[in-house]
Design brief:
Length: about 150
């Protein structure tokens, strides 16, 4: 029998991330499951800050990333609180790395049963076909993936 006890919500903080979180929470209610809301800070952003520092600007990459990580975790926690799920049914996690690799790693390590990610509108099909994060998660996830279409309301 297939059971769904842990749902990973991939949150990128685009304008439609709340819809992804709402879908994950709705599914969690149906399955009496836990939601793990995950955001991945792209390692390229870290490299950009390091490059700026190397150019002589007074930027401390470690401090910058620590601040951004804290800010994103607070945003995730706020978004999680807005779902109405009880605190023991939702966790938040911020990772640093390549988004696809980190999401796939978290899916395996946290033993997610289902993944919810944002999928582009049909008008964005060329972008999907050349390799969005969602498309790569769809192709490589060891568990089922639900794509939330941004162009459609509730």
């Amino acid at each position: 029998m297939i059971t769904t006890k842990r749902i990973l919500a991939g949150i990128c903080f685009s304008e439609h991330s709340r819809l992804v979180m709402e879908h994950a929470a709705a599914l969690a209610r149906c399955f009496d499951a836990e939601v793990l809301a995950v955001h991945v800070l792209n390692v390229r952003d870290v490299q950009d800050v390091t490059t700026i520092e190397a150019m002589g600007y007074d930027v401390r990459p470690d401090e910058y990333m620590k601040d951004v990580r804290r800010e994103r975790l607070e945003q995730l926690q706020r978004m999680a609180g807005e779902t109405g799920l009880s605190p023991e049914k939702i966790r938040t996690l911020v990772k640093v790395g390549h988004p696809v690799e980190e999401l796939l790693k978290v899916i395996r390590e946290e033993k997610a049963d289902l993944v919810v990610v944002g999928a582009k509108r049909a008008a964005d099909l060329p972008h999907i076909l050349i390799g969005s994060v969602a498309e790569k998660v769809f192709r490589h996830s060891p568990v089922g993936v639900v794509g939330v279409r941004h162009g459609h309301g509730r």
